[in-house]
Amino acid sequence: MRYFIIFFIFTFLNIPLNAQHLHFSSYSGLNRTSYNLENYQTNQTYYSYGGRLAMGHENFQFGLEFETNLTNPIFSISDNLGNDIRKDEFSNTFYGALIRWNTSEVPAYRLGLVISIGGGFNDSKFESFSLPDNISIETKDYSKKYLGANASLGFSGPIRNVIHWELHYQFNFNQVPELDTSLEVIPKFEAIHHSIQIGLSINLVFGEAAIRSKEIINSSR
Description:
This protein is mainly beta. 11% of the residues lie in helices and 62% in strands. The chain contains two helices and twelve strands, in the order αββββββββββββα. The chain has helices spanning 2-13, 207-219; strands at 21-35, 45-56, 60-69, 74-78, 84-102, 112-130, 135-141, 146-160, 163-176, 179-180, 185-186, 189-205. The strands form two sheets. An eight-stranded antiparallel β-barrel has the order 1-2-3-5-6-8-9-12. A two-stranded antiparallel ribbon has the order 10-11. A hairpin with a 4-residue loop joins strand 6 (112-130) and strand 7 (135-141). The chain starts with a helix and ends with a helix.
């Protein structure tokens, strides 16, 4: 996974300056958890927001992405009698790189199917609250940023000129490391998030790509 991330970053930094498509998007996401740790197996919903910047060929771009929680997934912890005694929550910010593929013949001006894969680093924090008084009893940062990967499938369509709407499903996978807290040792676990993302994007084309796009649009009129 580490070499996978290094490859993405290296490729992005070596994109030629004459790249002919620039894509910038901002989005919000509705997320659902799927963790393989006993205390956190109940699926929880939370919201996030983020952005992507990519450049390259008009159909294929390499870029960077950022996402952070707007709300956090919250898990109730019970005693042996089934009484909720505390709740745990995880906040997270993701920084990564991506490859993006838009299948449209004219991606900057027409509806297209978009496929992307990415990888990067997660910066996370754990916080626990006592119940029923809801008082914070511990806050602890993960000491090391840990790796994560994602893959998405969706659509990008024009609203006006080069401004597009974006609608995507994204699968996120993270290997969360062990965390030693005063309450207990939280073992490492696999964290999966299913995400529906809605946003807006700006898609700019230059040089030969811009000329080709205009020719295709004019010939279809």
